[in-house]
Fold Isoleucine--tRNA ligase, mitochondrial.
Amino acid sequence: MPELARSIPRSWTSTLKLPKSSFPPRVSPVDWTKYLKRCTDDLYAWQRRERPAEQPFVLHDGPPYANGDLHVGHALNKILKDIICRVQLGRGKRVRYVPGWDCHGLPIELKALQGLRDEDIASGPVSAAVIRTTARKLARHTVKEQMKGFRSFAVMADWENHWKTMDKQFEMRQLGIFREMVDRGLIYRKFKPVYWSPSTGTALAEAELEYKEDHISTAALVKFPLVDIPSHLSKNPLLHGKDLSAVIWTTTPWTLPANAAIAVSESLEYAIVLSEKHGYLLIAQSRFEYLQNMLKEELSVIVPSILGSELAEQTTYRPLFKGPEARPQPIFAADFVTADSGSGMVHCAPGHGMDDYEACLARGIPVFAPVNDEGKFTDKAMPLDPTRLAGKPVLGEGNTAVLEWVESCDQLLAQHKYEHKYPYDWRSKLPIIVRATEQWFADVADIRSSALRALEDVRFVPETGKQRLENFVKNRSEWCISRQRAWGVPIPAIYHRSTGEAVLTKDSVSHIMAMIEERGIDAWWTDSADDAAWIPPSLRDEAGAGYRRGTDTMDVWFDSGTSWAEIDIPIEGRSHPADVYLEGTDQHRGWFQSGLLTYISHQLGSSQFPTPRAPFKNLITHGFTLDEHGRKMSKSIGNVLYPQTIMDGTLLPPLKPRKGKGKKQPESQEPMYDALGPDALRMWAASSDYTRDVVIGKQVLQTVNTSLHKFRVTFKLLLGALADFRPENVVPYGELQLVDRIALKHLSDMVLTSQKACANFEFYKAVNTMNRWANLEFSAFYMEAIKDRLYTLGEDSTSRRAAQTTLFYIYNYLQEVLAPITPVLVEETWEHTPESIRTQSEHPLQRIISAPAPEWQDLALDTSYQELTVVHSAIKNLQEQARSKKQLGSSLQSFVHIVLPNNSGLFQQYLSELPDLFVVSSITLSSHSEALPTDIQDADWQYEETFELDGQSGKVLLFDLLLILLFHLLFIFLKFSMIQSFDFTPTAPATTSSVAPIPTVIPGSEVYQELHDVGKRTLWVVTVLMGISSLVFYTLAARAPLPKRIFHILTSLITTISFIIYLALSTGQGITTKHASIHEPHKHVPDTHTDYIRQVLWLRFVNWALTTPLLFINFALLSGLPGANLLIGIVAHLIMLTTALFGIFAGHGRERWVWLTLSCISYLVVIHHVGFHAQRAAKSKDAQIRRFFGSISGSAIAMLALFPIALAAGSLALKLSVDTETVLFAIQDVFTQGVLGYWLLLAHDSTSGIALYMEGFWSHGVGNEGAIRIADEEGA
């Protein structure tokens, strides 16, 4: 008999066409390598060979910096670029994507120096040649490591021909562009203020700054003695013989030694005031009160109004740091002076301020900056006493020394700490200064208008990027391109040894370029300083070399900005060199801008570009990556995520080991992780709205992994179902069943939406569409409807082939839409595709995408689907009710009768297909005018629910006929007893054969617990009741005197809040879903997994968190409950709600009951403090109040007991339907918020003993005393 028992299931199984596929739950690391090469290097080479050259697509790489390890920000950037390229590949284009690296600059140089010091090679100064050799080696190693990482992301690119800014060919192209700009007069040298970093010893461009919002400076109010004043003031008897001083305010006192002028505003009014301590002071009239507060004394106004225009050019003052013999300095008018802060007068140091420089230059005032490269004062800062300031850092000790000197001269009025925004060096993270030095500049003002016009035909994603880039260009007049470093491309200028005069011409640059071509760029530093070969012949004299080579290097933004020159596709016939530039949003002031300016300059210097254009056709920017708490990633915080941990799954908890039957697991088993490879990383990048900052963390990645598993399961199912299908078996569209045509309509909508989203660079919309389709329309609807046809009908039956035809189309299009996003997965599916399909299909990664057949876009199918969904939803709701009473197991036990509205012909037309579609045993139909079948009257049980179609009502009846059911049991058992289901729950794989069994449906069944008509109507009813109650309560409040309104106001607020919350819930807001997977063991058949997807109306918890404390306050005021008990009760109530929410979303394990226990304990604390203690407090009141409070509070506490009961049976145990749970909570809310409100207010207004008065602030505002009292009669 045991042998017979074992043979019977095998014979039953043989009657079913169970699909089989070799597609594994997850790909092995060995296969990763194989698939990775095919879908990247091999695919790129294929398309460069096979796709037409006249249809190129160029994505130009914004070079990452060759320093440090890759992080998720790098991954986001490179993957987005790759997705764009693959989308264009699918559109038939030949893709050109050549990766590049930015290799010059300060960070690499500093790292090279640190390495030399660590090796004790650099204890003192290090030559430029040694620095360059070390930096080059470091950059080359970093490029190699970063390239390895990028390739592991499944990025398809021309890796073998990658470029680096330190390559000789790149540097020569860069120097050629620089020569064009020199020839056009756009490069010049100037002694001018620039941003200077004392910490790194070099000039900086605006793009190299970071602004710290909370920088602390020492601000000072300083007075300068006036020498000459306007004649009408000198004749004023109040001022005769008086010493006047102009007051300035500065946040950079260290610039005072370089002061050259004071600026006023022509339109501002100034005043002369008298300070007993500081004498006669000239300030802006509107800053009078500010000065009084700073000086902490009352000031007298001597001359109330003097226009700034009267002071300008007629007033001089004596400088503080140049000695008593120094010439007086002028006061002039300037547009940048305001009275928003300070004194309304600005001290000007043209060597340390951009505005100061421009204003002084116009008046012939020389530039003076007594600060050296290290940010320390020179001897010239204070000629009379050089040692006082010389050698002291201006951002520290030097600043203090300046203020000490000013105070010793009795010219310091006040000083204070001032928090403000201040620029920092983006590399060293230390503050910078503004300092005049000899620097090389590019003239941006000359090409600015052309650059702005070139942006007109550029597409920006997001659109806000256009204004951002335009603003950066508009606000830039020149670009400081020289840096005082060794690791970079030299500025090819030579300088006269005696005069220091610079030579930079087209011819001199050409000569130097020829030398670099011959000797290499490092020779600029390594050749002898007297080597005359570098000097153009026309500048050599008989006495020897009269010129020397410069040591400045170019700004690295100039390096990368000229990278458009590496694009080798001819510009003829193309509007822009590159179709796409894509980088982070910080590049608007960096690479985007430098690329635009250099390319515009190149075009203006060439006759072949009549209309200058930008180097990019589409400019796309992405945000920064943030951790799951929204914080910027930082090593100091410890929240940096590395791409490898996402690909190998180690960022998530390890998988739970699966126990094999009869096998003992090793005691010390290595943890296994849900490693999904580069597709996990890519799915995260694609599903993120990259136009904003992108959040990544464990919760996000768990969602990504779930989505990827869903697609793997879907492909496994499709491959198994198509194992015996050949393309010649395709059934014509007209012969497909209704459900097949609906599935193709859904597929068509998904494909078209995804294709449009990808074309618009909105990949996250495409991913959302695919996920929704896979979970709902494909899995929950179509696969559920066709499983009988697939597994039980004859192999070549038209119905089965029709289902396979639909799945064949789904398989092909799903490969196409996922190809740009998860290429490794798509490559893997091709590996496992049945040979009969492979031989007649094109590789999915090589296909040119196509739109679905127009006939699939039958809009009438949407209407049919909606009608079927309405009825199906009613059927599932009734089945759920029957299951809750243990009256129904499988849905195939269901017998359904539908009473149709008069306007529905769909169901009669497709009656024969409805049982399969609804997964029930049978469907019968009737109209309202027909009597119900007698079978229904004989049923053991029945349920019914109404539905609406186009405004007309129908009815679904679910019933059970025992005799008929017994007749069908054998059929059901034969069909489903041995069907195994997928198990793609992330667990460690057990040891199995290479060929895995295929399920009848996607793993386990899915039960959707959601709001139906009853629940939705309940929400609307409560909304209306709360709205009406609020109006009634406000009306009652208006009729009551103000001291007596406290209950009215609190009760009105309760119902108003509840009205708003229920209105939101009724309109579909404040609702989310929870997912629970329940394992059900069986003795004679395989275990099953049921996925419950249940709606959670979380907004009702906000309602209770806001309204119940107000109810407790009512009780406290009525009973005299002490405030301590009230506070504890409110906090306990909030804890009760919070722990309940934790329980809802804790999964379906034991932990949910732990949270429920905590919630119940909190409920008991509420009863203790708001019930028991309030009853005790009420005993001190009269009998009338005691009785009333006992009744109303007892009713409320009892009604609140519904909360843990409904919570446990509903969202935690999943036994109550969402509708039932909604009704229970609605009853609780209507009673505690509405009924109790009416009870309280009616009793309050009609019973004199329950009158509560509040005077004082409540009735009369601040300044009036009052009390809360309970009185027997009004006015008592």
User: Anything to note?
Assistant: The domain at 216-431 is CATH 3.90.740.10 (Isoleucyl-tRNA Synthetase; domain 2). The radius of gyration is 40 Å. DSSP finds 39 helices and 41 strands in the chain.
